[in-house]
C-alpha cells in the first residue's frame, strides 16, 4: 500500500514539475527540451525526502507536492551541471546535445525551482527559499573543491562530500520540515552525514563505471587518498592501474578482479568503516528528534536502513 501511495505522490510531483515549466517557459524549443528531461526521470528520491520529512513533523500542507517538485527541479539542474562540468555520464540526454544548450537548460531549471518556491501560498515560503539558497551555495562550494581536485587529507575530503552531497539532502529534508512549521537543527546535521554515506557509495561504484571520469582524472576521493598511502603492494598495483591510462577494469581483466584487489588493498573495508561512522552519527541524531517514536522509526526505515552496508552488498 505504501509503495502505491509513494508512486501516486511521485506522479503528482512530476505533474507539478511539468506545470512549472509549461507555465513559465514560453520558448517552445526550450520548453520541449526541459519536458524531455522531466519525462526521462524515473525516480524522484529528493521529492520523497521532502515529503517524508513533512509527514514526520506532522505536516499536512496541500502544497507539499509543489514544494517537492521545486526540490526535484533544483536537483535535476545540479545533476546536469555536475555532468557537464565533469564531462561524464554520457548516456544522459543532456550530454547528447550541444553543451551550451544543455548548460542554458540547467540554469533555466535552477531558476524555475526558485520561482516555484515563490509561488507557494505558505507563510514559510521565504524561509524555505532562504534554505534553498543557503544549501545551493554550500553544494556549489563542494563542487568547486571537487573540480579543483586538490584535497590532501581525509578531513578535507569529508568536508567536500558534506557540502556537495549532504547539502542537497539537507535542502530536501529541511524544506519539508519548514513547510510543516518546524525548524530543528538536527535535520540539517544528520542530512550531512547521510550525504557523506551516500557519496562514499557513489565513489566506490564509480571506480567500476566506464562512463565516469573519476579514475582517468585521478579524482581525490577517499578511496584514492587511502591508496596513496601505499599500505601494501595491492594498493601500489591499483595506483599503477590508475596511472596506466587504460580502463581500470580492463587493466585488471574484469570488474570482479578489481573488486578483489580493492578488498586485498583494504579500500573496501576502509570505505565501509567510514560510511558506517556517518550512518551511526545520523542514526543518533534521528533518535534525538522531538517527534513520536513511530515517526523516528519511519524516518529510520527510509533514511538509514537503505544506506546501512550490513543490509546491502556493494
How are the SSEs ordered, and which strands pair?
Layout: H1 2-24, H2 28-40, H3 45-56, H4 64-86, H5 99-118, H6 125-148, H7 154-179, H8 185-206, H9 222-227, H10 233-243, H11 248-251, H12 255-265, H13 267-287, H14 293-303
Strand content: under 5%
Structural class comes to mainly alpha
Rg, nearest Å: 20 Å
Question: Regions with pLDDT < 50 over 5+ consecutive residues?
Answer: 1-5, 309-314
Tally of extended strands?
Answer: 0
Per CATH, the architecture is Orthogonal Bundle
The N- and C-terminal alpha carbons lie at a distance of 29 Å
Write down the CATH topology. Farnesyl Diphosphate Synthase
Q: How many DSSP helices?
A: 14
Portion of residues in helices?
Answer: over 70%
Instruction: Give the SSE order as H and E letters.
Output: HHHHHHHHHHHHHH
Strand count, sense and barrel status of the largest sheet are: none
Give the overall shape, derived from the CA principal axes.
globular
CATH evolutionary superfamily: Farnesyl Diphosphate Synthase
Question: What would a concise description of this structure say?
Answer:
The protein has helices spanning 2-24, 28-40, 45-56, 64-86, 99-118, 125-148, 154-179, 185-206, 222-227, 233-243, 248-251, 255-265, 267-287, 293-303.
Description of the molecule:
The protein has 314 residues and is an all-alpha fold. It has a single domain (2-311), classed as Farnesyl Diphosphate Synthase. The chain is 72% helix and 0% strand. It contains 14 helices and no strands. It has helices at 2-24, 28-40, 45-56, 64-86, 99-118, 125-148, 154-179, 185-206, 222-227, 233-243, 248-251, 255-265, 267-287, 293-303. α3 packs antiparallel against α4. It starts with a helix and ends in an 11-residue tail after the last helix. 40% of the residues are buried. Residues 1-5 and 309-314 have low confidence and may be disordered.
